[in-house]
Amino acid sequence: MHNSNYLVAFSLSLSLSLALLGCGDSSAETGESAAAGSESSTDESSTDDTGATETDTGETGGEELCPTQGVDLDGDVPELLSEMCLVSWDGAELLYEDNVYAYDLNTVLFSDFAVKDRAIYIPPGETATYVDNGVIDFPVGTVILKSFMFPADLREPELDIDLIETRALIRYADEWKGYPYIWDHELGDAVLTVQGEVRPIDFIGLDGIERNANYLVPQKNQCLECHEIKDELDETVMTAIGPRPRYLNRGGAHLPEGTNQLTHFADAGWLTGLPPLAEVPAAWDHRSLADTPIDQMDYETITRAARDYLDINCAYCHNPSGVNGISSQLFLNWDNTDEFHLGFCKKPGSAGKGGENREFDIVPGDAEASILVYRTETLDLGSMMPLIGRSLLHDDGSALLRAWIDGLPPGDCTEMDMP
């Protein structure tokens, strides 16, 4: 099993958890400090020579505890996360079963400084296919798990962890569907909670100051707000966000040092079509902030970092196929080279009060005058971006965007001949 390195002093015993569960996814974890590790909370794993993860047999006294993994795609989604037989919480750590692969991302997807633990289940005998500059093409029956947790003090991310929720994104034959599971630590399991929840959470930041988040466990329907795109037939469909090769192209905290995640997945037999690693782009690695603060970066690195930050935090909506991107014509995907659609001297189609008297999405050379910066910093619910998933300011993200925009060649947008 993969073992998370975030050990939590919950009072549940392992035996109680196994009896109840029946089987056995921003801050230190959002890249504010690389010394605290990657965005994933997994650290150590045990693998055999084939790259497959070691797992228990799932048997106790001859009784099989996990006879079936995954989800019955023709039935109802399980009420308890344990019924998927993919992940369990033993009172101290997250444990993943066989065919479940933990992974990390290069660049932070900010969620109120939550520590995230990510993993993918691939049905036995199935494989996923590499997609250049896109989400990996996963087979039907895939389950992407993303667990969210908060340490009491971000300066000690391995202590006093409160595991809040695990989101399951399931690949059906015709679409993806998302389901939120909230952990009940008395029960020792996570319970399907389609209505979601807003939970106040207090923790100490890296600066030693107490922070108070109104953390959102999304309603089932709210998953669409981030995962919805238009396909080639102009149909609205859900898609995964994070598992793209450019964000997976890195070592994993759960893998031996020097092991690349993509090659590990290919060696494990579930990822096909992977080109030579030198041909796979890699997003900017947020962990590098530990060694090179933003004020010491060269501008080329700042540009790359800011564009990748926008790509993973904003471009799931603001891209040419995103519902909000289509309506706003603001495309924040990393490979967009059209300055107008990137927001340069572009007036928003319908910002409402979101601009706070600002006229243009991005004013080159003037971050303070740019709507994009205002909306990614404000905590006003009528103006804040993203629309959900954030109740606090992400200091690193804000600093990157400001440094990038302030470093652009300045120009007077009122005099520019823009579309």
TrEMBL record:
Signal peptide feature range: 1-28
Q: Which domain of life is it from?
A: Bacteria
Q: Does the keyword Signal apply?
A: yes
Keyword Signal included in the entry's annotation: yes
Low complexity: compositionally biased ranges: 29-40
- Region Disordered: which residues? 29-70
Q: Which UniProt keywords apply?
A: Signal
Q: What is this protein called?
A: Cytochrome c domain-containing protein
Q: Which organism is it from?
A: Enhygromyxa salina
